[in-house]
Amino acid sequence: MKLAVIILTHNEERHIEACIRSASFADEILVIDDDSTDHTTELARAAGARVISHPLAGDFAGQRNFALTQTDADWVLYVDADERVNEGTEAEMRRVMAENARAVYEIKRINVAFGQRMYYGGHRPDYPRRFFPRDAVRWEGLVHERTVSDLPVRRLKGSLLHYTYTDWDRYFQKFNQYTTLMAERQYADGKRASFLKILLDPPFAFFRFYILQRGFLDGRLGFILAMTHGFYTMVKYIKLHYMETDSDSLTSFRSA
Questions:
Q1: Phi/psi at 101 (5° precision)
Q2: How confident is the model at residue 115 (pLDDT cuts 50, 70, 90)?
C-alpha cells in the first residue's frame, strides 16, 4: 500500500519546508502549487516533494480533486502547508492501511494562533477529514470544502499542529479573501443579507465564540479573535448585501 501526502500551496515559503519534513515518512509528497510568486516551489522540490503547478481559480474543492488525479497512491493524507504532522500519526495510518480498513478518517487538528495553542472558542481543536483511500472520495465546496464519500467516517489517532495565523498582515489578507469567497458562495446559493442581518449576526457571532464556546478561557487573544470573528461575519454579509444591490442596479440599467 502506497501513501501520498498532498499539500496545496500558494506563497508558502515560510512553511513549506517544515511541513514536508513532518511528512517525510510518506511514500510520495505531492505539492499542488497555485502560481506562487515566492520561493515555495523551489524549496518544495529541494525538500524532496514532487511539484505540479495548477491555478486555484478560487475553487479549493476543485484543487483538491485535481490533486487526486496526479498520484497513483492507494491512500492519501491532505496536509496544508501551515500544518505539521505530529509524531505517532504515521504508525496509526500504516496500521489502517495494512488492515485495509477503508473509511474516511478524521484527524485532530490543534490550532496555533500567533504562537499560542488555542483550546476554546472558534479556534478550538477540530477534526477535519483528511485521510482516506484515494479512489473513494471527492471534494465539494468553494471555500470550506468538504469530503463526499460512501465510506463510513472514523477518527484516526494522532494529530496535526495548525499554525493558522503567524502575523496580522497575513491574517487580514485571508480575512479579505475568505469573506469575498463566502459572500460569492452564498450569493450563488440564492442567499441574501438584509440590513437587519448585518446588524444582529455579528454580535451573536462574537457571543457564540467568546461565551458559548468559552473563548474567554484563551485569555486576551481569545477576546481579540472573538472580536475579529464578529467583524468577519459583518464584512461577509456587507459584501453579500452589495452583490445583490449592485446586481439590481445593473439589471435596472440594462432594462432602461
A1: -80, 75
A2: very high
